[in-house]
Amino acid sequence: MAIEKFASIPFSQIADIGIHMNSTGAKLTAAQVKAQYNADYVMNLGFYDMTTYLPIMALKVNGTWIVKEGNLEGMSFDKTGIDFCKADDSLRANFVTSYPTLIRGGSIADFTVPAGLGGDRGRSGLGIGADHNLLLGCIGESLATDDYTLQEFAQDMYARGAKCFINVDGGGSSQGIFPDGIIESTRIVQNFLYIRLYKPMYKVQL
User: Fold this and answer.
1) In this predicted model, what pLDDT tens digit does every residue of 141-159 receive, in sequence order?
2) What is the DSSP letter of 113?
3) In this structure, what are the phi and psi dihedrals at residue 51, rounded to the nearest 5 degrees?
4) DSSP three-state, residue 155
5) What is the pTM of this model?
6) Cα separation of 195 and 157, whole Å?
7) 3-state DSSP: the chain helix, strand, coil percent, rounded to 5?
8) What is the rounded distance in angstroms from the CA atom of residue 189 to the CA atom of residue 76?
């Protein structure tokens, strides 16, 4: 059975959210990204060229476009919210391209499976759920044939209440650290999503 992790996170609980970029000379694992940002969630994110180790398609990190190829759809986000929009309309600090969009406007999209992304494999994605919560989905790649097709991923996230949801890098890249468990991969991807939640504060009675 595939290892699956899902989350629905209200933005009122998010203290920090961003994208960590690796480079050929400085590659952090998911666990190291979690430690660096004191994150509660870490998940692989955008597609990248495995030869050059550079991101491909549109990717904006902390207000700076790292790559901007065309006016593609994707998710624009910061710690106050998330928008499904075209790259040119991204008003928030971060943006990651959809490849492809699985759910649009509350319905499963009529998408074409991109070359190389068909069949059963690991999947990762993010989107907008009920009450505009941030939705995460991560399916670990296994040696069995019980991973997800893109259609199955779309159907699962739709059943979980997704209003808009995009597919990001998957297969052997799919990995995540969630409060209730870890999806492991030996691949150190080029970029990670990280999320730190507000921590409750307690008063000590003397």
Assistant:
1) 875 556 899 999 999 999 9
2) P
3) -85, -50
4) helix
5) 0.94
6) 20
7) 15, 40, 45
8) 20
